[in-house]
Design brief:
Elements: E1 5-9, H1 15-23, E2 28-32, H2 35-43, E3 49-56, E4 60-61, H3 65-68, E5 75-83, E6 87-90, E7 101-104, H4 106-111, H5 113-118, E8 122-125, H6 129-137, E9 144-148, H7 150-155, E10 159-163, E11 172-179, E12 191-199, H8 205-215, E13 220-227, E14 235-242, H9 248-260, E15 261-271
Parallel strand pairs: 1-2, 1-3, 7-8, 7-9
Antiparallel strand pairs: 3-4, 3-11, 5-11, 6-9, 6-10, 12-14, 12-15, 13-14
Helix pairs in contact: 8-9
């Protein structure tokens, strides 16, 4: 640590950029073209941290993240829940009634479908929200808008023609904060432990492996499986649990998991975000 730089995947003004500013308002942000580039930036010391999106309340989990996490060489030290507020951005002086086309990421367009239909605005898919705003800034056409964050509008000199335009309220993205070194929170504070594991190929292995968490009173808040090694029979599991790795009941649960798992890797132990109480 020391540079006070946090990496994110995307262009300036992306919702990941917005999350970086929300958690570390005085830090510089480092935009990266890919998740791999952001991981490398932290490993190589170009950045101290990486703000990584893992799931969205509307769109579900972020693709490829679970495959990259175990081999990233980084540790989870925190989490952040970022409200996603879509804005319709246009050139200054443009009216909402002037807009006939909106550019954005496919998910953002889908999340604002009712708004677009109501105002007879045709959706055009772009690779990301902030990129759509950046491209719009270079276009002289005032009939085209972009759906992106308010921050993106500020960065690219665009004006918010309408705010909070998503069809469903409460759209939120969960981020993990990654660092080179692990940081253990105090054991008496609400904590989350994240880990991946593979099971031995024996009958009822998953049922038996998870039984230790139930019998020891450990709440599993997330459990996802995904294929590894290009095999349909080689499934790896990603899990989040409530509790600290050093709590006695968590230790016992991991001990029972060890009887049925051929590999267990703890990705991080970190403070539980206050959003979890909502």
């Amino acid at each position: 640590m020391g540079k006070n730089i946090i990496a994110f995947q995307g262009k300036p003004g992306a919702y990941s950029d917005l999350s970086c500013h929300a958690v570390y308002p005085t830090w510089k942000t480092l935009p990266c073209d890919s998740f791999e580039e952001a991981f490398a930036a932290v490993r190589e010391g170009k950045a101290d941290l990486f703000m990584m999106p893992v799931e969205n309340s509307t769109a579900g989990r972020v693709a490829d993240i679970h495959h990259l996490l175990p081999h990233s060489g980084l540790h989870i030290i925190g989490e952040h829940y970022q409200p996603v507020e879509h804005h319709l951005l246009g050139h200054k002086g443009t009216k909402l009634s002037d807009i006939t086309i909106a550019h954005s990421h496919v998910q953002a367009l889908m999340q604002c479908r009712n708004f677009l239909n109501k105002h007879n605005i045709a959706p055009i898919t772009k690779s990301d929200t902030a990129g759509a705003a950046a491209e719009l800034a270079s276009l002289p056409d005032k009939t085209i808008a972009a759906i992106a964050s308010k921050l993106a509008g500020e960065i690219y000199g665009l004006e918010s023609l309408a705010g909070n335009i998503a069809d469903q309220q409460g759209n939120t993205t969960r981020f993990l904060i990654m660092a080179r070194e692990a940081e253990m929170p105090a054991t008496n504070a609400p904590s989350i432990t994240s880990f991946v594991f593979r099971l031995r190929s024996v009958p009822a292995a998953l049922y038996k492996a998870l039984g230790g968490f139930a019998s020891n009173g450990v709440n599993i808040t997330k459990l996802e499986s995904y294929m590894v090694d290009n095999k349909f029979t080689a499934a790896q599991f990603y899990a989040d649990i409530e509790g600290h790795r050093e709590d006695e009941n968590v230790k016992r649960a991991f001990e029972e998991l060890g009887f049925f798992a051929q590999e267990i890797k703890v990705l991080g132990v970190y403070p539980a975000h206050a959003f979890r109480k909502n």
